[in-house]
Design brief:
By secondary structure, this protein is mainly alpha-helical. It is built from nine helices and two strands; from the N terminus they run ααααββααααα. The chain has helices at residues 2-25, 42-51, 55-61, 68-84, 108-121, 126-135, 142-152, 162-171, 181-188, and strands at 87-91, 97-101. Strands 1-2 form a two-stranded antiparallel ribbon. Helix 4 crosses helix 5 (108-121) and helix 7 (142-152) crosses helix 8. The longest helix is centred in the N-terminal third of the chain and has 24 residues, at 2-25.
Length: 199
């Protein structure tokens, strides 16, 4: 009985040791100290990591996942940063934002500088990447996804392809109105994964 109990305790200890060691080491690192990203969006995460010198941004990127809470935290910081510089920010559900100056003055160059500064300190590349991953988690061909969505919304014929959409996009000659709500929906949420996206 004692021998069996001792073996069981030893086994638990080994499991805990291997599990705890994995937790402590964290994600694998490359020679330059950056995480080794392996998922469908690995190239985008690696680029975002490389282009950021912000420790909070890098911490969020390091596990190759951006939660809604993390994205919201950065967006709130961006709003606060812009407020300190005299501008009010309103976020859209698809990641876009609108800016209004508190004094209603036309200061476009100052606003651009403020946005650049505040983005580098807060959202950086993370917020755009959050929405890209959420709308296309497997990183499939975006032209293919949007073309398929347009067909399902009956904005185009069933033969409309990814190549057709890419051609129309590049020449800005769509066979429908670019202001159509269904088109906007397909652009921001082609797979219908964002419950807050326009319907």
């Amino acid at each position: 009985m004692r021998k069996a109990l001792a073996l069981a305790v030893a086994s638990i200890g080994l499991l805990c040791f291997s599990g705890c060691s994995a937790e402590q080491t964290g994600p694998a690192r490359t020679a330059d100290g950056s995480p080794t990203f392996r998922g469908p969006w690995s190239a985008a995460f690696a680029e975002a990591w490389s282009n950021s010198n912000n420790q909070l941004q890098r911490r969020i990127l390091s596990d190759e996942e951006i939660s809604e809470r993390e994205n919201q935290e950065l967006q709130d910081r961006f709003v606060s940063c812009m407020a300190r510089l005299g501008a009010a920010v309103t976020w859209d559900t698809d990641g876009g934002f609108h800016i209004a100056s508190h004094d209603d003055a036309d200061r476009s160059s100052e606003t651009t500088e403020s946005v650049t500064r505040c983005e580098s300190e807060t959202t950086g590349p993370i917020s755009p990447l959050f929405y890209q991953v959420r709308s296309n988690p497997d990183n499939r061909d975006i032209y293919e996804l949007i073309a398929s969505c347009l067909v399902s919304k009956k904005l185009v014929e069933s033969t409309y392809s990814a190549r057709d959409y890419q051609s129309d996009f590049e020449s800005d000659t769509f066979p429908f109105s670019p202001t159509d709500e269904a088109f906007k929906k397909c652009n921001v949420d082609p797979l219908g994964l964002n419950p807050q996206a326009p319907r």
